[in-house]
């Protein structure tokens, strides 16, 4: 364990001594700021449109306009629940949504506005996309660069087992991804606090027995954790390709192709049973919170199980290749 920790420390120092690492952090902060700026612009335009659309009389502007869409949504859910072909998981999810809507309407509890401070805080998942792109670059090159720079022979001459060397690199990649997520999250929170106003709504959920209030910060951290899922999955894939084929460019290209085209591939194959077992279908775990699922009858436990199988396969390929590889050539 001591040797593994020492290797990780060395890998971490090598990573932070690179100028590109600091450039990545700057890019992440810049993109996060740009994303929040766009959200603020949309919020401003939406507010202006609402003010123009509504008559400036207090009676009209103070009306609970959210109840109309809530009633329509509840009616739609009830229509879906009348379908006898629903799976058990689908029915359970729809019933939970219906109970929350009924509770809101009965108790006059407004939902959280997406563009309020609370609404922005509860969904920091946009950070995951930026972190993923940057982490993939590190994951793809952390092993491949040792071969391209010719330092792999020197690395393997150390009295340390090869699997420990690879493990230290893999853990360093994921620690770097976590570090970027934390930095991006802190910056995101600061911008949300500065740019957006507090709302009056309350987040609610069904816990299986009753409707309960949801903490803004608990939901925020949960969404952040879910968004890191795609970072971990794609970074592991990039790490595998980079270590097996010794090419960081190939690893980056394939990883980004999977990330950006995954949803489209799943949509094309959605009517086939095989779609449930594709990596693309399960990469984005935030889909179970947003309600926009790629395959309707897929559940969170099932997605986690499928992802676990893929991760094991990726790591077995990485370790078996790295441990047995002849580097004398």
UniProtKB/TrEMBL annotation:
<feature type="transmembrane region" description="Helical">
    <location>
        <begin position="127"/>
        <end position="149"/>
    </location>
</feature>
<feature type="transmembrane region" description="Helical">
    <location>
        <begin position="170"/>
        <end position="196"/>
    </location>
</feature>
<protein>
    <submittedName>
        <fullName>ABC transporter permease</fullName>
    </submittedName>
</protein>
<dbReference type="Pfam" id="PF12679">
    <property type="entry name" value="ABC2_membrane_2"/>
</dbReference>
<feature type="transmembrane region" description="Helical">
    <location>
        <begin position="21"/>
        <end position="42"/>
    </location>
</feature>
<feature type="transmembrane region" description="Helical">
    <location>
        <begin position="302"/>
        <end position="323"/>
    </location>
</feature>
<feature type="transmembrane region" description="Helical">
    <location>
        <begin position="216"/>
        <end position="238"/>
    </location>
</feature>
<feature type="transmembrane region" description="Helical">
    <location>
        <begin position="250"/>
        <end position="270"/>
    </location>
</feature>
<keyword id="KW-0472">Membrane</keyword>
<keyword id="KW-0812">Transmembrane</keyword>
<keyword id="KW-1133">Transmembrane helix</keyword>
């Amino acid at each position: 364990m001591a040797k593994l920790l020492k290797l990780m420390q060395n890998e971490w120092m090598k990573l932070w001594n690179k100028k590109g690492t600091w450039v990545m952090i700057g890019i992440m902060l810049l993109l996060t700021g740009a994303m929040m700026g766009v959200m603020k612009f949309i919020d401003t335009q939406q507010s202006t449109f609402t003010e123009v659309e509504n008559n400036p009389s207090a009676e009209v502007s103070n009306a609970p306009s959210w109840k109309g869409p809530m009633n329509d949504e509840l009616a739609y859910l009830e229509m879906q629940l009348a379908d006898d072909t629903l799976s058990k998981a689908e029915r359970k999810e729809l019933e939970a949504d219906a109970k929350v809507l009924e509770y809101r309407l009965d108790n006059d509890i407004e939902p959280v506005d997406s563009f309020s401070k609370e609404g922005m805080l509860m969904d920091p998942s946009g950070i995951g996309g930026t972190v993923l792109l940057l982490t993939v670059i590190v994951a793809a090159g952390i092993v491949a660069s040792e071969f391209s720079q010719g330092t792999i022979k020197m690395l393997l001459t150390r009295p340390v087992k090869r699997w420990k060397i690879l493990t230290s690199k893999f853990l360093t990649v994921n620690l770097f991804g976590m570090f970027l997520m934390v930095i991006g999250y802190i910056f995101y929170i600061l911008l949300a606090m500065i740019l957006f106003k507090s709302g009056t709504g309350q987040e609610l959920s069904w816990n299986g027995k009753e409707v309960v209030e949801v903490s803004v910060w608990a939901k925020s951290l949960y969404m952040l954790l879910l968004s890191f899922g795609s970072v971990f999955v794609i970074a592991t894939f990039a790490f595998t390709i980079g270590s097996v084929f010794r090419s960081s460019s190939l690893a980056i290209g394939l990883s980004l192709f999977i990330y950006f085209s995954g949803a489209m591939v799943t949509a094309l194959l959605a009517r086939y049973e095989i779609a449930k077992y594709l990596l693309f279908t399960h990469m984005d775990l935030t889909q179970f919170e947003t309600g926009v699922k790629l395959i309707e009858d897929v559940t969170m436990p099932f997605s986690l199980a499928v992802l676990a199988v893929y991760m094991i396969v990726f790591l077995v390929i990485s370790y078996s290749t790295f441990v047995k590889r002849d580097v004398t050539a």
